[in-house]
Amino acid sequence: MGDWTFQSYGPHAWLVRFGRDLSEETMRRALAVSRDLEEHRPEGLREFTMGYGSVLLEFERARKTADRGGAPAARVEELVERLRRLPAHVPGGRLVEIPVVYDGEDLGEVAQRTGLAVEEVVKCHSGRDYRVWMLGFAPGFPYLGVLDEVLRLPRREVPRARIAAGSVAIAEAQTGIYPSESAGGWHILGRTERRTFDLERAEPFLLRPGDLVRFVPVEVGDV
Amino acid sequence: MFEFLEVISPGCGASFQDAGRPGWKRFGVPPGGWMDPVAAALANELMGNPAGAVVIELALQGARFRVLCDGWLSFAGASMGWSPGTVRKVSRGEELSFARHESGVYAYGAAPGGWAAPEYLGSTAVSARSGLGRGLAAGDVLFSLKAPSSVAPELEMKRGRPVQYPPTIQVCVWPGPQWDEFGAAARSAFLSTEWRVSARSDRMGVRLDGATLKLPTRTMLSEPVLVGSVQITGAGQPVVTMRDGPTVGGYPKIGWLEEEECHRVAQVPPGGTVRFELLKI
Questions:
Q1: What CA–CA distance (Å, rounded) separates B231 from B225?
Q2: Cβ neighbours, 10 Å, residue A152
Q3: CA–CA gap between residue B141 and residue B56 (Å, rounded)
Q4: Residues near B277 by Cβ (< 8 Å), separated by ≥ 6?
Q5: pLDDT at residue A68 above 80?
Q6: Beta-carbon separation of A138 and B120 below 8 A
Q7: Which residue has the higher pLDDT, B243 or A158?
Q8: Is there a cis peptide before residue A146, judged by omega within 30 degrees of 0?
């Protein structure tokens, strides 16, 4: 199966991996996989969840204890084979602009650790469009990539207990937007009034995998 | 809807819960729902409610309610001041106090017909961290779907089989996706340590103290996480992912617990201990 692998994750779920890096190729595969599973839901598949270069397949629980530990292995192999043969999806998502006030509490530290001036950090972060790889961690949290190499820092050693909703943050090769107040270990560069998750909206989720996000620097008051 | 209880204090945590909202994980929405489905089901069964009826979930201790009208209530699960697995009649003006923690962590209270609660994405299960509702707060009035006094009187005699929640348990664990990537020393320490449940545990995860595990050298890309996964944090501490936990994460997962084992871990109070026994495949 080439660079596609899958492994069991407990007796009812399988983790399929199809990319070990955040390349355009991995992204295309991910979009093809999620689109296919959305449109042609395999029988017995209870739920699927995307990761970077991976997808988790959760199947209905086997009733008989004799089936524990491997009932659907052959079926999973068949399904993986099907996914592997999908034509790579060329992303054509919407472009969503996110106005950001760059005054985050980690901006200074990020500048210091990357050796850039604060303005250069802002310019670098807002200077490219990011693809939505997946939604995860919290409702509507977009994993966006990929970040310019100069801005890549490991997660904070001690995660913050409280990060405000709308915080725009970075970690490693990714950037994201906290949908609601939560704990988190990413470096906060700024904030936006756009909510990536809002139950009051007809469409609660602002972004979908494949969309492009453009951060637009604004001053306080412009948001 | 019938006015039944008023919240005086939510104590360590009180919220509406049901079976949760499967099917939304790819939008980042955790499954949520009752931490101990067995206890929640017993509370509903005692009341003669449908299995999926909305219950209130109380954490540890401290919750207090004022009864606004005569009626029937059942509680099951953790013991914190109401004999678990029983139904009883409460009277207008009475104060219900869950201040005496004896065992377990989560207790479930059912009212006739279930509680009236707002739905978010198809479920009433509150997951505050996810922006899906909020926990109960002082002054909240709780409504039952049926008249509080509508329950048949023979229910008074009904008792569930009391479930014991020992503070020291052993659970079976499946190897997690990164099991092979942990070194032999880390795997052996994981299985031999008597892990102590931290007070910082909540509906997202049960944190365990007792040893520091050496992480795999290879860093990983964020990947999907199943409820029941034993993740090892950057500091080398295990966290058992619970129902409000993140759907995707970058910590390696040394093990995975079946749902039934996960409930048992959820009911171990802070200071209690958990040991893991590896299932042979």
A1: 9
A2: 14
A3: 12
A4: B170, B171, B172, B173, B191
A5: no
A6: no
A7: B243
A8: yes
Residue B157 pLDDT: 61
Closest-CA distance, A124 to chain B, in angstroms, reads: 23
Identify whether residues A154 and A196 lie together within a single domain.
yes
Residues A71 and A132 reside in one and the same domain? no
Overall pTM > 0.90: yes
Instruction: Reduce the DSSP state of residue B256 to 3 states and report it.
Output: strand
3-class DSSP assignment, residue B50 = coil
What residues of chain B lie within 8 A of the CB of A11, using their CB? 174, 258
Give A69-120 pLDDT, tens digit per residue. Answer: 445 788 889 999 999 999 876 667 899 999 999 999 999 999 999 999 999 9
Residues of chain B with pLDDT under 50: none
What's the CA gap between A64 and A78, in Å, rounded?
22
Q: What is the pLDDT of residue A11?
A: 87
Q: Do both A39 and A140 map to the same domain?
A: no
b/e code B102-140 from CB counts within 10 Å (16+ = b) = ebbbbbbbbbbbbbbbeebbebbbbbbbbbbbebbeeee
Residues of chain B contacting A50 with CB distance shorter than 8 Å = 26, 224, 248
Cα end-to-end distance, chain A, whole Å: 49
Fold type of domain B168-278: Cyclophilin (2.40.100)
Q: Which of B169, B171, B108, B230 is nearest to A9 (CA)?
A: B230
CA atoms of A137 and B25, how far apart (whole Å): 9
For residue B197 the two structure tokens come to 């449940």
Contact A139 B28 (CB under 8 A): yes
Question: So what's the pLDDT on residue A2?
Answer: 57
Q: CB of B80 within 8 A of CB of B98? A: yes
Q: Which residues of A touch B120 (CB under 8 A)?
A: 199
| Residue A223 counted as domain residue | no
Give the residue on B whose Cα is nearest the Cα of A21.
B221
